[in-house]
């Protein structure tokens, strides 16, 4: 998944028949994707967690004029797959994946620090009989932890070419390239490694002895850090401290950056108002693009910050620990630790979260987790929450040392996570009960410094994905909405007849907006949302957010800019109901904002998620179920939130 | 040697043993996977630590660390007290 949000993993590369295909296989977390990136120059996602890559990823590289197709595959512990991601790799190796020819050669990637276990997997892959070369990674860490390996002797013992690399830094990649150029001449093992597990074990020991292997010392830092992070009290405290700190940061540290972006847009809006001639064009640029889309773009810093945090957690090796610590809790909900990691990745975006369920061996667990993943607070909800919390809570309010805004945000994340667990539990209960019990295991790699490149790539690709979304879905929606807000055109005579002071542009635009097609649409759905306290403008916002949640922010920004071009922020704060029983009262009261926030916690307003659910489950049934149950739940919970807030005197 | 054979799930953190037998339970895939993870007869296993809620447990085997739930650790039998 190179491009963060919404990228599902099939890379570029026209597959020509005569181009040799080379596949990367090996244990999870062995460094396959790092080698792949080194060979192809692509930026596929890496991380210190076994199970980062869950789909086939294709790139190409050139060695001396010859093009090679390089395939990155999910890791596996053995060739008898237990989970969907491992099945992909085995199917590719056996040429059983539809439309994908069998690779011509394999690069077997092994982590030098876990060689004693990994050689079992190497033996199994060598047994498949494809031309093979062994790529030994983590040679730097082996040396640092006082281990030893004679790479040349390893090659002799295995009977295939061996090359040592430091994957994430790209050392040794040019040697590997050179070796690839001569793949037709690669030696094959004189004798296939044994297939019986006991004999294979003896074979591994003899290979290790021949290669003068000394296992690395234990990683002391890892043990000490784990003493704290895996401690029942300290571990929990650290986890919540990191989370709270993060939400504080979203509001405080990102605020100056955001102000910068905001004033840039304000300046732009002024320029447009001054320079752009035709009033309609100035309106389109000022309201739809700057007021609407600009309002969403302001959130780039927060999104990047969120992805930075997740990339760091994944890069250091915390994710495997999270799975380990949470496994017992997840078991209460009928799931396992890996499902927690999938849910945690959904903080970025439900799409990679749903993809990550491929690491789950049990089909039922997988389905339950997929149905729950959209409830985790994804980055698309961030702008909506920040906007609405800003309307609800004064920035200066504090609860103890913490900003109240950050705490409300934390509460929303918690609400989403708890709801996700409960939803997963329900779906697991009502699912088919026949499934076999499957083993839970999780390798805990040592803590490592995250590769700076990987972290930068994660941040950059999240920003890029967000910008892309803004420039397509959100711009499109904003322009359509602009038309709906400005049509039909009101003639001066008509305005006069309606008693509008035609000399006052604010009054004119307020009247036109209130009698536009958009208003008609918003009022048409009013019976549905009226009990939640939404007025037609909020309805339009909610409807427009159906494809992508951030659009809500763009829509409200645009409506506000259209009503009062001078000060849209104030227009939003002081917006009142224009008709109905609450006419004249302010819209954004605490009960309405609470209902809106809760609505966004539950509703499935993301077409990308619907599409990935369709693809991963193979039927329309599950996306339809997910959409229906989440929308119904959103309405009910929003109504509850409103009622409770009203009762609490908000 | 001649120690007593015990299920891995019964050992306390800090204990070591050498795997004597891996039984599959009802599911053959479990024994296969445990073997792929390094739990093969003769392998030395050390109990490293328990999760805060006591399950799963981290084991050190074949020079790396892996955690198993109690149900899986109950499939692995070890003879305690190996070097
Ligand atoms: N010190 C060191 N770190 C490495 C090396 N190769 C990869 N890494 C790091 O190890 C981690 C795992 O690398 P990946 O390339 O994601 O491994 P993978 O085999 O693709 O893992 P999965 O896709 O999860 O199976 C990343 O954090 C890398 O930065 C290496 O040679 N030395
Ligand atoms: Mg990978």
Summarize the structure in words:
The complex is a heterodimer of chains A (about 650) and B (about 80). Chain A is an alpha/beta fold and about 650 residues long. Chain A is built from 29 helices and nine strands. In chain A, strands 2-3-1-4-5-6 form a six-stranded mixed β-sheet. In chain A, strands 7-8 form a two-stranded antiparallel ribbon. Chain A is elongated. The N terminus of chain A is likely disordered. Chain B is built from two helices and six strands. Chain B has a six-stranded antiparallel β-sheet with strand order 1-6-2-3-4-5. The longest helix of chain B has 9 residues. At the A-B interface, helix 3, helix 7, helix 9, helix 13 and strand 9 of A face helix 1 and strand 5 of B. Strand 9 of chain A pairs antiparallel with strand 5 of chain B, so a sheet runs across the interface. The complex binds guanosine-5'-triphosphate (GTP) and magnesium ion. The site of magnesium ion has 4 residues of chain A, from helix 1. Chain B: InterPro entries: Fe-transptr_FeoA-like, FeoA, FeoA_core_dom, Transcriptional_repressor_C. Chain B: Keywords: Iron. Chain B: It holds the Pfam family FeoA. Chain B: It comes from Streptomyces fuscus. Chain B: This is FeoA family protein.
Keywords:
heterodimer; A: 650 residues; alpha/beta; Rossmann fold; two-stranded antiparallel ribbon; 58% helix; 7% strand; disordered N terminus; B: 83 residues; alpha+beta; SH3 type barrels; six-stranded antiparallel sheet; 2 helices; 16% helix; binds guanosine-5'-triphosphate; binds magnesium ion; Fe-transptr_FeoA-like (chain B); iron (chain B); Transcriptional_repressor_C (chain B); FeoA (chain B)
Q: What does this entry show, briefly?
A:
The complex is a heterodimer of chains A (650) and B (83). Chain A has helices at 32-40, 84-93, 115-126, 139-144, 151-158, 173-181, 197-210, 220-229, 232-251, 254-275, 279-297, 300-316, 318-332, 337-345, 350-356, 363-372, 381-392, 404-430, 452-486, 492-497, 505-514, 517-524, 526-529, 536-544, 551-563, 568-573, 590-602, 607-617, 621-647; strands at residues 21-26, 57-63, 66-72, 105-111, 132-137, 162-164, 398-399, 402-403, 441-443. Chain A has 650 residues and is an alpha/beta fold.
